[in-house]
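In response to a reviewer's request, we include the raw inputs and outputs for one of the modeled complexes. The two entities were modeled together in a single run.
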Amino acid sequence: MAAETSIGRAQVRAERLRRERQLQHLIQRAIIYALLLLGALIILVPFFWMVSTSLKVEKHLFDQPPQWIPDPIAPENYIEAWEKLASIAPGLTFWRIMGNTLFITGLAMFAEMFSASIVAYGFARFEFKGRDVIFFIMLSTMMIPATLTRVPTFLIWKRLGLLNTYDPMTVPAWFAWGPAYVFLLRQFFLTIPREMEDAAAIDGANPIQTYFYIMLPLVKPAFLAIGVLSFQANWNNFESPLIYLNTTQMFPLILAIQFFQESLSKEAPKWHYMMAMATMMAVPILALFFAAQRYFIEGLTVGAVKG
Amino acid sequence: MTGDPGAFATYYPTLLRYIAVAVGLAALMFGVYRLLRRLGVKREPATGFVLVLPWIVGFLAFVLFPIGLSFYLSFTEYNVLWDKPRSLEDPLFNYKRALSVKIVELPEGQRPLQALGVLESPSPETVRFRELDRFRWGNKTYLIGATDPFFLKAVWLTLRYALFSIPLGLVGALGVALLLNQKVRWVGFWRTLYYLPAVLPAAAVALLWFWLFAPTSGLINSLLKPVYQLLDMQPLGWFTDKDLVLPSFVIMGLWGVFGANTVILLAGLKNIPAELYEAAAIDGAGNWMKFRHITIPMLSPALFYNLVTGTIAALQIFTQQAFIPTNRDDGWFVNWFVYNEAFNFGRMGYASALGWMLTLLIVLLTLLIFRSSSAWVFYEGMRRDRGKG
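The model returned the following structure tokens for the whole complex.
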């Protein structure tokens, strides 16, 4: 009898302990999710506010308390912003600016991907005298700030007579101007077994064929990763267009937005138009991000984790 | 502003030159390969060198030559409208002008400018010391004067920005990464969500936060209204208040980079082998011990990478500044300041000298981080080597 109760008591105690542990676990989970949710709010509220503002009519911009859902909804802001711009700079239309932006981004991105992968292949796969020194120099150039080369590079383009053209933003991309991309691709090439190329060489492929038919398909994830990074960087590139372009109609989107801010939104900020333009600037990048998320994260983490 | 030649006329010359350069580069690579082979270089080294050649050409033309030119220009006076730079009587004038600082006593009844005087140098123009700050010591007032107070203020603001934003960003990102690593559901969803701000273009981020922080009717001040009423204080001016410019930029910067750092650190966390934690648990290690002796050392390369890239980026903040017109007195970062010296005030020589000083600062800080790394960054491969030896 006595033994039975003591067993019973032990069972009860074990049960209680189990429940306590369960409760503790539950509380821990609840705290984790609450924190994550708080972070999500901090991230999403500004996003929501950007889109919400872009759809408001001017008189509701400064409502107190703030109007969260625009009423009435004014999608015409997205068109009117461009009409305002066209009114001070004839010919500056949405399509023109989009064309400029895509022209710069496309050319720079293509050349950058192409040259970075060739250079990375050279660094990763071929032994030659001074290779490691050259590679080290290349990595050190990442420390050189744009401030240092900005003035002399401007003077070079000025001497070449190519100011106010798209050349400074596109042509130098052929020379593998992004050390980070070369580094990233090199890390990937290094992971590919040598037998691949040996087999290709035995089959009589020359280095160019080996590169295009064997190596490039194998590093496709890294190649696409630098593709999205490069698209993002060139789409957002502000400094070079700011320095080199002065014909308003030639501006890429980012510079058109700044032009709008400087000329039309200086004294009395037109926040609804500004947010509409900011949203237009962000949408292609966000779309690309959702479509190719894997490659964004690949590109971001490879330097830190695999390097 | 020059006339607009139309879309086609602006695209096709660039396109032609773009193709020409590509063809020329390919021809150069081919030519150098043939030359090397004829000189008796073996096939492999010749191919490797030729593949790296585009970068070498670009480095010479767009990095090394500009650096040299910039070095030369930093000892000259060069207005962008002139044909060529003019040499300075005192070659170091640009550097002196940027860095000269002195402390003088302010006599009763004298104006600060008078008391501070001018820079003594055989210079093309008179450069006055201007008041940077003043302090009282005993019953006398002292002035700190500088020949370019704006530059020093910009450097100081940039350094403080790096000092606050980088550690806060890393610690915060580490916290979120640790949370996400706790077997939470929908990791992919949370990761995407937290990464979103890092994808948003810097220009859009800057415009958005300029609007959120607007003093009279920005969302943040609207939401803080009850707090203001409770504490009986004026709404904060954020970007327009000289004391709050820095925190405002830091908050905006944190919102922007948080997600990217989190993703990097999370990938690092996922790379830590579970056996390490199991072994530690068998040895009776608690959560803190595991964190301190496994997580941190194993994560240190990722933290190190973040620290280096974060420092280099923070010292060069540029685009955000262009969209947030802050007061030059207290709210300009050094990169923006140098850009304006060169392209708005046309002082190419002076801007080159400033660029050199900024570069020196970045290199010094980076080297400092690299030197410190042997004390706290842990590479698994290196440990194994040492074990063998």
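As requested, we also summarize the result in words. The longest strand of chain B covers residues 130-137. Chain B touches chain A through 109 residues (CB under 8 Å).
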